[in-house]
Structures are given as structure tokens and as C-alpha cells.
Amino acid sequence: VQVVESGGGLVQPGGSLRLSCAASGFMFSRFAMSWHRQAPGKERELVAEIVSIGGGTSYAESVKGRFTISRDNAKNTVYLQMNSLKPEDTAVYYCRAFNRSTGYDYWGQGTQVTVSS
Question: How far is residue 110's CA from residue 26's CA, in Å, rounded to a whole number?
């Protein structure tokens, strides 16, 4: 099983980044996928989630209207489009795959996003 994030980096306030999470080794389409983040000295928090069937999404209040989560089941990949980035979005962003029926729970290693001028 592999869950690998990419696309992080340094961006100025107001800028955009697109994170990708490539998964392998499990039935991707049957897993809910989510992005989480952890800033220094803070707890890890859920940023956005997309369900396995139907494409329903949910977002943390702090990112609503700015971030968009999407998935491509043919490519076993989930994305997080981040627009209008703020310094408070600076964190390590983690991708998670979770199947509620089986309890299987996989995390990536994280990718750093830094928003600074």
C-alpha cells in the first residue's frame, strides 16, 4: 500500500497550489479520501473529504470557498486545489484513505505547504 502526496511548496499570500495524492495497493474507488494538515505546535485537523461513491465533499470552515477536493478513480489520485492562500494555511498536508466498512486506514507521509511573502 502506498499513499504519496506531492505538489507542496512555497507560495505567496493570495497564491494557489494544487496538491496531488497518488494511491496504490488497495481498491481506491472504495475508500473515502481526505486531506488533513498539521501546523507547528497544533493538532492535525481535517481540511477536506470526498466520499467513495457519489463524490460528496465536505470542508473545514476555514477553507470553504478557497479549497476544492476532487478525485480521479481511473488514476487512483485525489487532488486539493488551494486558492487564495493565507499564511495560516502553512502546514504539512497529509492525504488519508479510509474505508468505513473494513476499517482500513492509510496515510501518506505529508507534503509541506508554506505561505509567506
Answer: 19
What is the tens place of the pLDDT at every residue in 78-90?
Answer: 999 999 999 999 9
Dist. CA 62–CA 69, nearest whole Å: 14
**Average pLDDT rounded to a whole number, residues 25-32:** 96
What is the rounded end-to-end Cα distance, in angstroms, of the chain? Answer: 37
CA angle 69, 113, 51 (to 5 degrees): 20
104 Cβ partners below 8 Å, 6+ apart? 26, 31, 97, 98
Q: 54-67, pLDDT tens digit by residue? A: 889 999 999 999 99
Sign of the alpha-carbon torsion through 50, 103, 44, 117: negative
Q: Which residue has the cell 470557498?
A: 65
Burial class (CB in 10 A: 0-12, 13-18, 19+), 44: middle
* Residue 115, CB-side half-sphere exposure with 13 Å CA sphere: 18
Closest among 11, 1, 29 to 81, alpha carbons compared: 11
